[in-house]
Amino acid sequence: MKIKEIVAVAAAMGIFVFVGCNYHRLFPQEETTVPTTATEAPSTVPPTTEEPTTLKQYDFSQLRYSANSAAAACYDCAEQRFLYEKNASARIAPASLTKIVTVCVALQYADPSVVYTVGDEVNLVQKDSSLCFIRPGHQVTLYDLLCGMLLVSGNDAAYTVAVNVARAVSGPSLTAQEGVACFVGLMNDFAQEHGMTDSHFVNPEGWDDPQQYMSARDIAIAADYAMGLAPFREIIAKTAYHAAFVSGQTIDWTNSNQMIDPASPFFTPGVVGGKTGTTQTAGKCLLAVFQDDAHSLIAVSMGNPTEEERFYSVRELFDTVLAQ
C-alpha cells in the first residue's frame, strides 16, 4: 500500500473513533424518561377499587300513628342524617320543645352550679302555664332550674333562667322584660349558628305566638347538640327528681316523658330521655332519644291529637328502624 493510501485510511479511522466517542455531545437527543429523586421509588400499591359506602335505606311505609301527626322526623346521630321526614321543614308551633334550645343557650353562658335568686320575672308566665312552683326569693341552682324546665316543663323556671343568664351576659341592670328580650336574641343566634333555618323565638318557654316556630328537623338538630351536654343528658334520663333549693325549700318533680318510666304503658326500653310539649296550637309534641349498642336515634313527633299518639308515633319510628 502506498504511503498516501495508508495516511487516508488512518485519517478515516480517526474520524470514526472521534465521532463515535462524542456522538451524544455532537448530536444531543430529547430526554424520554422522567428523572427520579433519591427519595422516590416505584409504587407497589395497586389502584383502589373500593366502592363508596351505600347508606342503608329504611321502609317507613307501614307507619300508623305518625299519619295523624302534623310533622315528624327520625334522625341517625351516628350517621348524621335523617332516616325519615314528614313535613319536617314546616314551621310550626313547638310548645315546650323550645326549652331544649333554652337549656342549650343557658349552658353556653353559665355553669350548672351557679345560684340564682328567683325574682319578678316569674310573673311574666302566661295564665295556665305549666309550672315547677318556684317563688320570688327562692335561691336555686341553675341545674335545679333546668330540672324544673325539662322534667315538668316549668315556664316559671324558663323565665328565671332567661333573665338571670341575660343579666350575666349584658349587665345586672336589665329589667325582666329586657332580660327576656336579650336571652331570646341569644336563642335566635344559637339557631342561626347551628343551621336551624326554620326556627324563630320570641319567648324562652314555647308559649304559642305567630313568631315562635320550629321545624321537626330543627328540633332534632337542637336535641343532637344538647345530647353533647352532660347536664342535659343526665336530667332527661331522670324519672323523678327531689329538688333541694339553696334557700331551704324542697320539691319533688316527676318527668312528663313516660317513655322512660317502667310503670307506664308507654315505656320503651332503649329510650334514654326526651322532652314533651303541649299547647293549644302545637297539640301534643314529643322528642325522644333512643340508644343501644348499634343505634343512636332521635325521633320528633309534632301536632298529635292525643297523648297516646305522641308516644306511639315516636315509638313506631324507633321500632321501624330497629326491625330492618
Name the descriptors.
about 15% strand, Beta-lactamase, disordered N terminus, two-stranded antiparallel ribbon, alpha+beta, about 325 residues, globular, 9 helices
Plain-language structure description:
The chain has 324 residues and is of the alpha+beta class. It has one domain (65-322): Beta-lactamase (3-Layer(aba) Sandwich), CATH 3.40.710.10. 35% of the residues lie in helices and 17% in strands. The strands form three sheets. The chain has a five-stranded antiparallel sheet with strand order 2-1-9-8-7, sandwiched between helices. Strands 3-4 form a two-stranded antiparallel ribbon. Strand 7 and strand 8 form a beta hairpin. Helix 3 (98-109) packs parallel to helix 5 and helix 3 (98-109) runs parallel beside helix 7 (216-226). The longest helix is centred in the N-terminal third of the chain and has 19 residues, at 3-21. The protein is globular. The chain starts with a helix and ends with a helix. Residues 1-43 have low confidence and may be disordered.
Mean pLDDT: 89
Percentage of residues in helical conformation: 25-40%
What's the total count of β strands?
9
Alpha carbon gap, first and last residue:
104 Å
- Helix count, DSSP H or I runs of 4 or more residues: 9
Task: Record the strand order, biggest sheet.
Answer: 2-1-9-8-7
In CATH, the architecture is: 3-Layer(aba) Sandwich
In N-to-C order, the SSE pattern is HHEEHEEHHHHHEEEEEH
